[in-house]
Amino acid sequence: MPFDSLVLKKIEVARSDMAGRLRGLHDIVRGRHPAVHRIALVLYEPANDLLRTFASSSDDHQGLVHYEAHLAAVPSLRELAASHIPRVIDNLDLSLQAPSIHSIWLKARDYKSSYTVPVYSGQHLSAFLFFDSRLAQVFTPAVTTDLDVIADIVAQLYLLRIAAVNTLVGAVDVAKGLARLRDVETGAHLERMASYSRLIAQTLAPRLGLSDEFVEYLHLFAPLHDIGKVGIPDRILLKPGRLDDTERACMQQHVVIGEKLVRNIISDLGIENDLAASVMVNLVAHHHERGDGSGYPQGLLLEQIPMEARIVAVADVYDAISSHRPYKAAWSEAECVAELRRESALNRLDPVCVEALIEAEGERMRIRHQLSDDSHAEGEPSLPPTGVVTSADAA
Length: 395
Known about the structure:
Elements: H1 5-12, H2 18-32, E1 38-45, E2 50-58, E3 68-70, H3 75-83, E4 87-89, H4 101-108, E5 113-121, E6 124-133, H5 141-179, H6 187-208, H7 212-221, H8 234-237, H9 245-252, H10 254-269, H11 275-286, H12 307-322, H13 333-345, H14 351-359, H15 361-370
Helix pairs in contact: 2-5, 5-10, 6-7, 6-12, 6-14, 6-15, 7-11, 10-11, 11-12, 12-13, 13-14
């Protein structure tokens, strides 16, 4: 008898992240088919033809994480995506003449057979779902009939989650437009900051156990950290030059306003217990906290600040000092590194996050140059550090 999908949905609805939902479903699958040793969901980003690991569950708790590959470089999956038909491989050792990193990883861990299901949003490829076994010829028609029900549930859970996340981003983007934040922060700044945030998270992921899902949500929501500026009057938000004490206190209220705004949107969408919601709330509410307690609005110490907020803080400060602003030229890389390490030594910025960004020099510089503001060329003479945009007081 096929699985009862309604029962499975009820069981899984309380899970807070996709990995948790996948583990729960895997437990149920293994109750009926013990030889299904692994389930994994890999996302597809059509804008750059990129496959990216997202969530997985395996009996040995060993997952392929932080994996990226262009779909064009994986002919077997490219054919599968075009056909819209699931694929069974009875013996991995005898198949896949042009092996990918994914298949090499599977073989190294003695997986023998697999069942792959493409996931679509409408007619557009959205993800691949993999079922893997350490035994050959596991995925008979009877087994795949059962797994198709699981695949449908995973697809619906994932697509519903993405729909909710996109609705959340859309609602916040509308609010950003109302506040005319583009007059304050360029799109390039937000894109750079998101890319630096992802770079830091990816660098730290193996050491800190950050999931692919966490990294994806951090990258997605990092540009929305200052959404609370929708509630700041234009006379303060758009004021050239320094703010006085009263104006600065008003500006700092954008954090509280932003947290209330995103919590209201999250509540309306009914995703309060979701990992995506948690990442967004934490980075909006805490990105101006500093490890020595000098930040706002709560004056938290470093160990009290959520990791996503620590990462965004470092990314935001680095982009602020490395970019041209109306009141300053871009600092040199040497000055930027020195400033980040100074803030780190004062325990204002997380030293682990600072060093992760500094160590990833090649990718950091690629982001800085590739996403630079078109109106300002690199190499302008830098100004001596003045503290105008350091982590201690950047608004």
